Amino acid sequence: xxxxxxxxxxxxxxxxxxxxxxxxxxxxxxxxxxxxxxxxxxxxxxxxxxxxxxxxxxxxxxxxxxxxxxxxxxxxxxxxxxxxxxxxxxxxxxxxxxxxxxxxxxxxxxxxxxxxxxxxxxxxxxxxxxxxxxxxxxxxxxxxxxxxxxxxxxx
Length: 155
Prior knowledge:
The protein is α+β, with helices and mostly antiparallel strands. It has 4 helices and 7 strands, in the order E-H-H-E-E-E-H-E-H-E-E. The protein is globular, with a radius of gyration of 15 Å. The protein starts with 5 loop residues before the first strand and ends with a strand.
């Protein structure tokens, strides 16, 4: 098996614009803007990572993810990838889980759109289980879509 042509590194304020463009591409109906992303990346209780081409993750942005630490719980705020099937999503999620553990979290929560079967399958395969539903959480083009709350114990 060959090594991937990409790597991970912590996101910095210098990455905000590129992440914002990826947000627009991946989540056009609910993209965070540069100001929101900057506030997230600079917040002391947040951890953001990106995957980019090259051994130093200095090339093209291929994915990103971020969590919020809140005591014994971490919340996965976002995860997005531009290259399917390369293991980037799994690597981003693993990085976030490790950061959550290091930050004192015992479990990770996330919300996923009910109509996003691919993401639901991804999280289920990673050991997450549905624990709740938030009715009408997403409002997209006049539609209200439920969010499924998923959880995984980290310890």
